[in-house]
C-alpha cells in the first residue's frame, strides 16, 4: 500500500464510519490525525522509508503492521508520544538507530530498543498449558523495565495474531498458546480487558476453528435481542433502585467467544452436558451492579428477585463465603424471559476494587504466592497501571518493579529455570541434574563462554558445558555455589 493510498484511506475512513454510525471512533481518528505531533509525523516518515516495501508473510508490509499497532494504541486511549513512536518504529533495523535518535531523541530510541529486546526473548514451549505458566509470566515481566514497552508489546501481539493463519499449523498453535497462556494473562493483569478478549478469541479461532464459528453463530443469533434487553433494563433498574435509596453503577456485557467455550467445557466436566454444546449456557448475557454498602448488595438482590424468577441452584454468595483468593460478590442467575437468562454480579465499590485490582484478583491467586507477595509490597501498582493514561504523575516513573527474590533464565530449548537471585552457573547445572552439576566445566551464556561463577541474569539463555572425565566436583565449588540444593549435591558427591 503506498503512502498516498494509505493517507487517502485514513482520511476517508472517518466519513465512512460516520455513515455507519461509529461516531465516537471516527471522531477519535479525526482528532488524532489533526493533533499528530511533529515527532509522530517524523516517525511515520522514517518507518515508511525503511518498512514500506518490506513484506511480511501475511502479504502486508511491515509499515502497515506497525501502523495497525499505532492505531490500536490510539484507539485504546494511549497518547504517550514515546509509545506511539516506538510502535511505528519497532521493526526498523538497529543500523538506523543514530538517525532515529537524532530525529526523535534518546527516550524514544530507548523504547524501541526495549521492544527489540523483548522480541529477542522467544519463549518456546511445546505445551504451555501443561507447564508452569507462572514462570512464563514472571519471566516476561522481569525482562521488562519500562511499562510503556510492555504495553506496546502486548498490543503488537494482539495485532500480530490476526495474521497468524499464514503460518504452518505447528506455528499457529504455538502463537495461539502464547496468546492464551502468556500474553492474555498479562493483559488481564494490566487491566487491558479488551485486548485480553481479542487475544483469546483470535487464539480460539486458530486452534479450534469449528468450535469458534459455532460460538459465533450462537452469539450473533442472540446479540441483537440481548442488547435490546440491556437498553430497556438498565434505565428501568436504575430508576427502581434509586426509589429504594440505592445509587448503583450498572455495567453490562456479552461474554467473548473463548469465555463461552470455556464455560461449555466446564459444563462438560461437571456432567451438565454429554458433549460440547452451548444451548444451556446461562450467562452469555451478564450484568454487574456496584453499590456503596454490603447491606445494599442484599437489598438489590431482593429487589431483583421480585422482578425476575431466580435459579436458586445457581446462586453463590461470595460475600459471606469469599473464594480462597479473597474474591467477594453475590452471583445470581435470573430468568428474564422464556429463552433468556441473565447472570448478575452484585458487589460494593470496595469489593470491585479489590477483585479487579487488589490481592483478591484471580490472576494473583492463580500464579502463586511469590508473585502476589512482590506485588502486594506496592498495592497501588495495578491501579496505577490500569489508569496510567489518566494519571500523568505515574508517567514520571516508568520502571516496573522487578521481582527481586528470583532470577529467570532459559535453557537452550527455551524452558524457564527459576533460581534465587545471585545464583550462578554451578547452581544452574545442579538445578538441571546432579550428573550435569558434577561434570560441569563452565557455561555458554547468550553465545559467550563463561566461568562457573558467572552470575545468572534475567533472560540469559544458558547452556552447561560438561566433560565425562570429571568423577567428582571440586571442593572449592562449595564456596562458589549459592543455592542449598547445589551445596547439598556437591557435599553428597564429595563425601558419600
Summary tags:
three-stranded antiparallel sheet; Ubiquitin-like (UB roll); Beta Polymerase, domain 2; 55% helix; alpha+beta; 10 strands
Number of strands: 10
Query: Helix share of residues?
Result: 40-55%
Low-confidence stretches: 1-34, 126-131, 362-368, 379-397
**Strand order in the sheet with the most strands:** 1-2-5-4-3
CATH class of the domain at 209-357: Alpha Beta
Distance between the termini: 71 Å
Structural account:
- The protein has 496 residues and is of the alpha+beta class.
- Among the domains are: 132-149 and 158-207 and 368-403, no CATH class; 209-357, Beta Polymerase, domain 2, CATH 3.30.460; 406-495, Roll (Ubiquitin-like (UB roll)), CATH 3.10.20.
- The chain is 55% helix and 11% strand.
- The protein is built from 22 helices and ten strands.
- The strands form three sheets. Strands 1-2-5-4-3 form a five-stranded mixed β-sheet.
- The chain is globular.
- Residues 1-34, 126-131, 362-368 and 379-397 have low confidence and may be disordered.
Record the SSE blueprint.
Elements: H1 3-20, H2 23-34, H3 38-51, H4 62-75, H5 81-89, H6 97-104, H7 106-120, H8 133-142, H9 147-160, H10 169-190, H11 193-207, H12 209-243, E1 249-254, H13 257-270, E2 285-291, H14 294-307, E3 316-317, E4 330-337, E5 340-348, H15 349-357, H16 362-367, H17 369-376, H18 381-386, E6 406-410, E7 416-420, H19 425-432, H20 434-438, E8 440-445, E9 448-450, E10 462-466, H21 477-480, H22 484-495
Parallel strand pairs: 2-5
Antiparallel strand pairs: 1-2, 3-4, 4-5, 6-7, 8-9, 8-10
Helix pairs in contact: 1-2, 3-4, 3-5, 4-5, 4-9, 5-7, 5-9, 6-7, 7-9, 8-10, 9-10, 9-11, 10-11, 11-12, 12-13, 19-22
Amino acid at each position: 500500500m503506498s503512502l498516498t493510498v494509505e493517507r487517502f484511506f485514513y482520511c476517508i475512513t472517518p466519513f465512512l464510519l460516520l455513515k455507519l454510525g461509529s461516531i465516537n471512533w471516527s471522531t477519535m481518528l479525526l482528532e488524532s490525525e489533526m493533533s499528530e505531533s511533529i515527532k509522530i509525523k517524523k516517525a511515520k516518515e522514517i518507518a515508511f522509508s525503511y518498512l514500506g516495501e518490506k513484506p511480511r508473510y501475511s502479504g502486508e508490509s511491515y509499515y502497515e503492521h506497525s501502523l495497525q499497532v499505532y492505531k490500536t494504541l490510539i484507539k485504546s486511549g494511549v497518547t504517550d508520544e514515546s509509545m506511539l513512536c516506538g510502535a511505528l518504529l519497532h521493526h526498523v533495523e538497529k543500523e538506523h538507530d543514530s538517525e532515529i535518535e537524532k530525529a526523535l531523541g534518546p527516550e524514544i530510541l530507548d523504547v524501541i530498543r526495549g521492544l527489540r529486546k523483548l522480541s529477542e526473548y522467544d519463549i518456546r514451549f511445546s505445551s504451555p498449558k501443561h507447564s508452569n505458566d507462572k514462570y512464563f509470566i514472571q519471566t516476561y515481566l522481569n525482562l521488562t523495565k519500562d511499562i510503556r514497552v510492555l504495553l506496546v508489546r502486548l498490543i503488537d501481539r494482539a495485532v500480530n495474531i490476526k495474521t497468524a493463519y499464514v503460518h504452518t499449523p505447528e506455528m499457529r498453535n504455538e502463537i495461539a498458546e502464547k496468546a492464551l497462556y502468556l500474553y492474555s494473562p498479562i493483559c488481564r493483569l494490566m487491566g487491558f480487558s479488551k485486548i485480553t478478549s481479542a487475544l483469546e478469541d483470535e487464539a480460539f479461532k486458530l486452534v479450534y476453528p469449528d468450535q469458534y464459528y459455532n460460538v459465533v453463530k450462537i452469539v450473533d443469533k442472540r446479540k441483537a435481542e440481548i442488547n435490546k434487553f440491556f437498553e430497556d433494563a438498565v434505565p428501568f433498574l436504575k430508576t427502581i433502585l434509586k426509589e429504594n435509596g440505592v445509587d448503583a453503577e450498572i455495567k453490562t456485557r456479552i461474554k467473548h467467544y473463548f469465555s463461552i467455550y470455556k464455560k461449555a467445557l466446564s459444563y462438560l466436566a461437571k456432567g451438565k452436558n454429554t458433549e460440547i454444546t452451548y444451548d444451556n449456557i446461562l450467562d452469555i448475557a451478564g450484568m454487574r451492579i456496584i453499590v456503596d454498602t454490603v447491606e445494599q448488595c442484599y437489598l438489590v438482590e431482593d429487589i431483583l428477585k421480585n422482578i425476575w424468577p431466580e435459579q436458586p441452584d445457581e446462586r453463590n454468595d461470595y460475600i459471606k463465603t469469599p473464594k480462597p483468593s479473597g474474591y467477594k460478590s453475590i452471583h445470581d442467575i435470573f430468568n428474564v424471559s422464556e429463552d433468556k437468562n441473565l447472570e448478575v454480579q452484585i458487589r460494593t465499590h470496595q469489593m470491585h476494587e479489590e477483585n479487579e485490582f487488589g490481592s483478591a484478583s484471580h490472576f494473583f491467586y492463580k500464579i502463586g504466592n511469590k508473585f502476589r507477595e512482590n506485588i502486594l509490597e506496592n498495592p497501588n501498582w495495578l491501579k496505577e497501571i490500569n489508569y496510567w493514561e489518566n494519571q500523568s504523575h505515574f508517567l514520571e516513573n516508568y520502571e516496573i518493579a522487578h521481582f527481586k527474590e528470583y532470577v529467570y533464565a532459559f535453557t537452550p530449548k527455551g524452558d524457564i529455570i527459576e533460581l534465587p537471585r545471585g545464583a550462578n552457573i554451578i547452581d544452574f547445572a545442579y538445578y538441571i541434574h546432579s550428573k550435569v552439576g558434577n561434570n560441569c566445566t563452565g557455561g555458554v551464556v547468550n553465545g559467550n563462554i563463561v566461568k562457573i561463577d558467572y552470575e545468572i541474569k534475567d533472560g540469559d539463555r544458558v547452556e552447561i558445558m560438561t566433560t565425562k572425565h570429571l568423577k567428582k566436583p571440586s571442593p572449592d565449588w562449595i564456596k562458589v555455589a549459592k543455592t542449598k540444593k547445589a551445596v547439598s549435591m556437591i557435599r553428597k558427591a564429595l563425601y558419600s
